Hints:
Elements: H1 2-25, E1 29-30, H2 31-38, H3 42-59, E2 63-67, E3 71-76, H4 81-88, E4 93-96, H5 98-110, E5 113-114, H6 115-122, H7 127-136, E6 139-144, E7 152-156, H8 158-163, H9 177-190, H10 195-198, E8 200-203
Antiparallel strand pairs: 1-3, 2-3, 4-8, 5-7, 6-7
Helix pairs in contact: 1-3, 2-3, 5-7
Amino acid sequence: MEEETRQEMSLQKAESVIEALLFTMGESISLEALSNVLELDKEKTRAAARQLMSRYQVEGRGIQIIELDSAFQMCTNPEMYDYIIKLTHQPRKLSLTGVMLETLAIIAYKQPVTRGEIEQIRGVSCQHAVNKLLEYGLIRESGRLNAPGRPILFSTTEDFLRTFGLSSVELLPAVSPEKMDSLKTEAEEEAGISAEEAGISVEV
C-alpha cells in the first residue's frame, strides 16, 4: 500500500511539472522532451499528461491541454473565444476558399506531397492556394523530393491540427479513392468560380 501511495504521488508530481512546463513555454512540447525532464518513461509521461488533460476537461476550465502528434500544449478553451473577442475586439479568422480547402485536403491525406502532384490531382494550378495556406501556417515545406528539379514537399502543421480539432492526422476521416479522384473533376468545374463565391470563413 505504501509503495502504491508513492507511485500516486509521483504521477501527481508529474502532472504539476507538466502543467508548469506547458504554461511557461506556451507552445507544444514533445512527449520525448517531457519524458526527459520528468525522468519517466514515455508511457508514464503520456499517462500523466492525459490525466491532466482530463482534469481540465472535467472541471470545464478556461484553458485546456491538447495532444498534437506526440506533443502536448496548453491553450485557450474554444468555448471562451467569444469572451476573448469582446475584450480584444479582434477576432481571428482564416478565410478559406473552396479551392484552398480542396488543396489542404489533398495535402493532409497525401502528405508529403509536391505542388505538381496536387495540381495533377486537381487538374488546375494551386500556386495561390498553396501560398495562402503557407501564410496561414496550415502547411509547411517539409523537404524536397529526390527527383529532377528537387520539387518542394508540403505537409500539414500543428496549426492545422489545432484549427480542425485533431490530435493527429491519423484521425482524419477516411476518404475513398473515388472521392479523391473526384476532386479533379470538381476542381475543373469550379475553376471559373471566383474566390469570393467559393469562400468560407473558419473560426480559430
